[in-house]
Amino acid sequence: MIDSHSKGCIRYITIDRIAKANAITNEMLDKLIKITGNSEKNKILVFSGAGKIFSAGADLDEVKKNGLATSPKWEILSDTIHRSPCMTIAALNGTVAGGAMGMVLACDIRISVPAANFFYPVMKMGYLPQPSDAIRLSKICGSSKAKLMLLAAEKINSKKAYDYGLVDEIVSEDNLYSRVDELCLSVSNSKNDLAKAVKKMIP
Predict the structure, then answer these.
(1) Tell me: the pLDDT tens digits for 94-134?
(2) Which residue, 136, 150, 145, is CA-closest to 105?
(3) Radius of gyration, alpha carbons of the chain
(4) Please, are residues 171 and 90 in contact by the beta-carbon 8 Å criterion?
(5) Residues in the chain, pLDDT under 70
(6) In sequence order, what are the beta bridge partners of 5?
(7) Is 97:57 a contact under the CB 8 Å cutoff?
(8) What is the pLDDT of residue 162?
(9) Where on the phi/psi map is residue 98: left (φ > 0), alpha (ψ -120 to 50), or beta?
(10) Which of 71, 54, 192 is nearest to 117 (CA)?
């Protein structure tokens, strides 16, 4: 349900559970954390979803059964992505919801298709967002926009996400992965750990 493969120095990590809108289970969280934390041989990590949706967030069955919505593993995953020395790219092939927003916010670059929507309705479900998600969303979009998404549970489309600064580019569905590959070229061709050193310089 988590597909991971490397092509040169790039590791592609895909959430693949199409029948459940790529909802993330506890087991999938463990695998995402492990893959992301063991990518020192790579220069770039690209996160995406299979099909037309990036991820619907936490699997609702596991939310009810074992409290997945409040698991500390969401925070561990986003922190692992954020601290990765690799350049991290979220290739947003479709809608992002709930807990999946954390991993997207933790990425260095976010590229979206036009059809994607973004929402984080945890408060409506009776839960707090993960602490770092609220901080990163506010840092990226500004506190007012973060409140619109977290307090008012506003669902935004890709155009509004771009206006908010939540996504860096909107590209056609057909061009998503070719654009990601273009963005990878500079880092792919860099010498040794130069790109990792440059990333460390950027707050």
Answers:
(1) 999 999 999 999 999 999 999 999 999 988 888 899 999 99
(2) 136
(3) 16
(4) no
(5) none
(6) 12
(7) yes
(8) 99
(9) left
(10) 54
Instruction: Put the strands of the sheet holding 117-119 in their side by side order.
Output: 53-55, 95-97, 117-119, 156-157
- Whether 103 contacts 136, CB under 8 Å: no
Alpha helix positions (H), the chain: 26-37, 60-66, 73-83, 100-106, 131-141, 143-150, 158-164, 176-188, 194-201
For residue 112, the cross-strand partners are 92, 170
Domains of the chain (ranges plus CATH)? Answer: 2-172 (3.90.226.10)
The tokens for 69 are 């919505």
Residue 184: exposed, middle, or buried by beta-carbon count in 10 A (0-12, 13-18, 19+)? buried
